[in-house]
Amino acid sequence: MKSGAAQRTQQRITSLEDFRSMARGHDLIPLIARMDMQELTPLSLYRKLGKGSHHSFLLESGDRGTAGGRYSFIGIEPEKVFRVTPEGCEVRDGDGNYVGFHPSRAGARKVLGDYLACRRPKSRGDDLPPFAGGVAGYFGYGMTEDWEDLFHDCTRKLRPSALPRALLMGFATVAAFDHKIGQLLLIHNIRIPECASREALDILYR
């Protein structure tokens, strides 16, 4: 897509005044911009943005009784990557740097709970699609061994696998194709520091 065309059709939905207001009492604020899809498709944008990225996703939503869903979601360059094994949950940043390891079966629940613990403002009307940032990835069948007693026999275990039991990615930025109105929503979630000044908020907004 030509940058000039994107600039002409892009519209920021979240105003500076709304951003300042939402920052009072919340520590994660979604900034939303809208633009026409033009010749873009979810797959073409994903191929363009995800080139060279080791962790990304393209998610097509579905509605009951229809051929396809209203939204397609794209996430590139996650903030965090959570790799769950039988020993615990390893955390790395988006560049692959080691952050920490949380042992035991409860490790994944603890680290994901900490990551997702935020006071996000409620969506007003149709401002936000169903997924506007957070965690995406997969849970393998091996995770069921952490959640329930599969065999009712402590001597039996699932066959070991070289794959992680789960691989999850934390995204602050998400692109959402709205097929109903033919527009692309760009959503970037801004973390608000404690006691942020008005000047600091204005810098974050820009």
Write the layout of secondary structure elements.
Blueprint (H helix, E strand, L loop, with lengths): L2 H7 L1 E2 L3 H8 L4 E9 L5 H8 L6 E5 L10 E6 L3 E6 L2 E6 L4 E6 L3 H10 L17 E6 L4 H4 L18 E6 L1 E6 L4 E9 L6 H8 L1
Antiparallel strand pairs: 1-2, 2-11, 3-4, 4-10, 5-6, 5-9, 6-7, 8-9, 10-11
Helix pairs in contact: 2-6
- Tell me the number of strands: 11
User: Reading side by side through the largest sheet, how are the strands ordered?
Assistant: 1-2-11-10-4-3
Gross geometry: globular
- Mean pLDDT across the residues is 83
DSSP helix count? 6
Distance between the termini: 23 Å
Q: What are the segments in which pLDDT stays under 50 over at least 5 consecutive residues?
A: 1-8
Proportion in β-strands: 25-35%
Rg is: 20 Å
Q: What is the string of SSEs from the N terminus onward?
A: HEHEHEEEEEHEHEEEH
Assembly of the depicted chains? single chain
Q: Decide which structural class fits the backbone.
A: alpha+beta
Helix fraction bin: 10-25%
Largest sheet: 6 strands, antiparallel
Question: Can you offer a commentary on this structure?
Answer:
This protein is of the alpha+beta class and 206 residues long. The protein contains six helices and eleven strands. The protein has helices spanning 3-9, 16-23, 42-49, 107-116, 144-147, 198-205; strands spanning 11-12, 28-36, 56-60, 71-76, 80-85, 88-93, 98-103, 134-139, 166-171, 173-178, 183-191. Strand 10 and strand 11 (183-191) form a beta hairpin. The longest helix has 10 residues, at 107-116. The chain is globular and about 60 Å long.
